[in-house]
Structures are given as structure tokens and as C-alpha cells.
Amino acid sequence: xxxxxxxxxxxDLAIRGxxxxxxPNDEPASELLSRIHxxxxxxxxxxxxxxxxxxxDTVIYFGxxxxxxxxxxxxxxxxxxxESEIPFELPEGWSWARVASISDEPSYGTSKKSxxxxxxxxxxMGNITRAGTIDYSDLVYTSDADDIAKYDLHPGDLIxxxxxxxxxxxxxxxYDGSIPAIYAGYLIRFRAILINPKYINYAMCxxxxxxxxxxxKTDGVNQxxxxxxxxxxxxxxxxxxxEQLRIVDALDKYLALVDGIERDRADLDGLLAQxxxxxxxxxxxxELVEHDPGDEPASELLSRIRxxxxxxxxxxxxxxxxxxxDTVIFTGSDGLRYEKPAxxxxxxxxxxxxxxxxxPEGWSWARxxxxxxxQERRLPSGERFNYIDIGSIDNSRNLICSNEIxxxxxxxxxxxxxxxxxxxxxxxxxxxxxxxxxxxxxxxxVASNGFYVATKACNVLDEYFLFQLLLSDYAVNSxxxxxxxxxxxxxxxxxxxxxxxxxxxxxxxxxxxxxAKEVFNLLD
Length: 524
What we know:
By secondary structure, the chain is of the alpha+beta class.
């Protein structure tokens, strides 16, 4: 059973009027929308809205020709046909309405920096889930009285994630008021008027809404954006108010059952993930397979990597600056670990404080950048290309989902060259575990610059072993220590380059890989 598809099917049935039966005695949605407009005019009179906030409200109706038309609610201007915008047919008694016509004026959140401690939580884009709920497990705070007063959330408020990756921009959540909170600048707050906010939230968690987001978003260097003007234009299928309540009750019940199934599966998946994590931990520390004193030590392997990279410089495949910062890590006569430039042009320095744990004899420590080729820039070519974005990674299985797009629509961040066997490692939170190995079928793809692309330098390093190293809790947690930023935290390429990795002899790498695959296949 595909839980995500089941959830989406229920939501899709709901917004098409196929989840619960219609009641011909229900007041039609057109009457509800008229009352909403009257209430908004009254709010203007009370000073709760400004005249400009209702100036562009519209009414959508079907003409005598059976086509949908839209006109301004104040009667100004001419009606225009919007047939091309209507995505599907609605039951009798339902109506289409823009977000702008059924809510107050959407507002952006605070741009001030949050703190680890404070009076009130500040909700960020990472707190908004794809299921339309708020995750309170990772909070930052503010004690700024002006911000608390200005951005205070009310129960029933809806929060729209205006800036995020292509896959996650446009998430919406319903705020139930269980924890006092304000909202950050990458979020937009809007408040439904005389309409059930939980219904609006469910409608905006559908695949229909995701498709709309994909069609209207603008792409920047690392993020996509949907501003308040576009949000206000989103078309909501509006049922009669009584049917809204029936839909919400039904969805609350059905989705609770789906959540129960998902939790049971998550418990099993969590146990399997712990077992796999333990296998990786044993592999990283040299405790998964037996050691063979006859294996060529890892120090010799690392020397050959250095020789191959210098040979590539000689052939013009690399530039001298690409190997300038490679280092050698060794144990001194005092038993402490030291690091020196591989070209021998500077003195060694003690890095004992950086060494996280002891490794077996014959193993060596090395920086990630020393093991890998420099990252290459590649721009899309041809009419279409395979694009690996942060959201392209299935992080439960660490696989890449193929995503072919038009070159003409390529975002500017599509610039990382990948090869078959390259490992793409997301540098953006909350996607730090979006890690995958590029299959042969996607060797000519282009990746987002939100990834660190690790491509082994030569054939004296097992690429699958390197992949398992980067999947380990040790690697992910080490990188997470360098996470910086508030609304969109990330790590720098330099922090990735400097990651210390324990390297066994090549033959032992192969034994580790064989054993790990045996265990993973058994668990799967």
C-alpha cells in the first residue's frame, strides 16, 4: 500500500465533491461567498481591513453559454472568460473562488533573527509539514515584544511556505493555537473569513495545489518562491458550508486511520533504519569484518590517489589549484595524529583534537576533498535533461527519482556535473540526509548546487564504500555541526571538503561492501 497515494486520493476526492454525499438542502456556496464579501466590507468599515484589501475581490460564475466567467465583486469592469484556468468540474451548489476573495490580506512574517531561547516560538518553513500540520520539534524563539504583537498567530490561521526548494515550496499548515507562536519571513499568514479553515488547509494539501505551485513558482539560485500576489490568485473549490464540515469530519477520520498505518510502518522502518545505521557504524569503525594483516595499508592507497591526481594535472584534466589543498594525515613518533600538505610545502600540524575515534591498524584518516575530484560545473544542454534537485532524492531508500525537465525552464542552480558513481550529498537542512549515488542511467545528469558532489579520484577507492561512509551517522552528524543560518540553514562546501573519513585498505573496503550488502538485502 502506498500511503502517500492513499492520502492524496482522499484529498482529491474531497475537493471534487466525491468524498461525502451532497445535500440539496444545503445553502449553495455562491450565497456563502456573497456573505464573505459583505463581511469583508464590514471589516473595512470597522478598520480591520483597508479598502484596497477588497478592491480586487472577484465573483466567478457560469454564463448562459456554460463557460466560467470572472468579474470584480464591486461590479467595476467587464467579466472575462477563465475557462483555461478551471482545472476540473464541481458538483452543483459548489463555486470557485480566489484565495483573495475568501480571506483577509495575506501578510509576510518577521525578518528578524531568532534565538535558541526566548518567550515565543517563531515558526519557520521546516516546521510546516507536507500533511498540513505544524511540527513543533525543532523551534527557535523570540522575545521581541513588537514582533510578538505584530505577527501573533490566531487559532485557525493558515500558513503558506512561500520560499523553499522546488519540491517543497507552497506547503500549507493549519495553526490550531495549541502553542502560542509567530511566523518567520519565508512564511505567509492568511485568515479565512466565514469559511472552514481546516477545509481550506486540506484543499491546499492536494496534488492539485502542488501542480499549481509548480506552474507559478519562480526559481532563484538555491530556492523557489511564490509571493503573496500569486497566492491570492489560487482557485479554491468551495462547497456549501455544511458540506465543508462533513468533508472535514470525514477527512479527519480517514486520515487518522492512514496516519495509524503510517505510524506502524514508520515504527518498522525506524527499527530497520537503526539496524542499518548500526551496520554502517561498525563498518566505519572497522568492526564489521575481519582484518587481514596481508592487506596493503590504506596509506599506500592514499599515495596512489595522490599520484593519479598529479597525473591528471599533467594531462590537463585538473588544474594545479585542484590539488593544492590535498593533505596527508599520519601518526607521529609521539603517538599523536598530524596533518601536512601533500606537496610538502608547509609544516605538519597536530590535529589530535579532531580525531573522533580510533581506527584499526592499516587504516588511515583522510579529508573528503583529498579522496575526491574537484566539483565540476556543467550547464544543461539539448532540449531536455535529467535534473537532480534536493527533492529528487528518496531519502528513505537513498535513491534518485528521475526528473527530466526542459532546458529552457532550467533553474539557475542546475549547475553541478555528476558522473556514474558520484555521490550527491545535500548541504541544505532539513534535507541533510538526502544522499544518493548516481546510477549509470543518470550519468549525464545535472545536479543542483545545493549538493556536494563527491566523485572518487581513481579506481583505488571503492565508490560504494565511500557512499556508505557518507550515509553513516558519523558523517551526517559531523557535517550537521557546521550547519549555519536561520530560515534556510546550510553547510559550506569548505566544511564538506574538510570532513575526516576513516579509510581501510582497498581489499577490506571490498569485504565491508560485500558484508554490508548481504545484511541490507536481508533487512530489505
